[in-house]
Design a protein that fits this description.
The chain starts with 6 loop residues before the first helix and ends in an 11-residue tail after the last strand. α1 packs antiparallel against α4. Helix content is about 45%, strand content about 10%. By secondary structure, the chain is mainly alpha-helical.
């Protein structure tokens, strides 16, 4: 949505490294315990790499694992950042991202390279990253915690996401939610 993601690139990268049934462990809609633990901060980078090595040939390096994991993160689009900056002048914006420390380090670096003067965090009143927040979408209680922490009224809050399960989780928490499908965030009329 803000940053395009291609899950298949990571699937293909791990399969190329020798993790033959990787697509049975990780998809956009569902993931196994290793990935959940990484995403809510219960596993760090070293632990993740060690866990992944159990499924890979001994010759695979730590960096190859990190690169395969980051393969799904596509380049930033400056016009999307400009759109967020435009929205920032009219709305209180928060980011809620299911991410992990490995991906965050990668997209922080690539954001600086592509955009320059801002960090992603600068675009929002507060950015919630699941590995720091300890909660992830689509669980309604994660949305409820975010609302409570910021004293937000769910009836006056809009959540936009490209994963239907996340939209449904927000709706269960009483938040208005839009499922962004086949369109770009810039196409929203807010």
């Amino acid at each position: 949505m803000i940053l395009d993601i291609d899950y298949q690139k990571t699937v293909d990268a791990f399969i190329a490294l020798g993790f033959e049934d990787f697509d049975q462990h990780y998809t956009q809609a569902k993931q196994s315990g290793i990935f959940d633990a990484l995403e809510i901060g219960q596993m760090n980078e070293d632990e993740f790499v060690a866990a992944m090595k159990k499924y890979l040939p001994e010759t695979v390096s730590d960096q190859q694992i990190i690169d395969a994991w980051n393969a799904l993160l596509l380049p930033w689009k400056k016009d999307r950042i400009d759109f967020i900056l435009e929205l920032q002048s009219r709305y209180n914006l928060y980011l809620f991202s299911n991410t992990n420390a490995i991906h965050k380090a990668h997209f922080d670096r690539t954001f600086q390279e592509k955009i320059g003067k801002y960090s992603l965090d600068d675009l929002f009143i507060k950015a919630y990253y699941s590995h720091i927040f300890g909660k992830r979408k689509p669980h309604p209680e994660s949305f409820e915690a975010l609302l409570k922490e910021n004293n937000l009224n769910p009836e006056e809050t809009l959540f936009v996401d490209d994963s239907i399960q996340h939209v449904e989780g927000a709706r269960k928490a009483g938040i208005h939610a839009i499922h962004l499908v086949g369109t770009d965030i810039r196409d929203l009329k807010l």
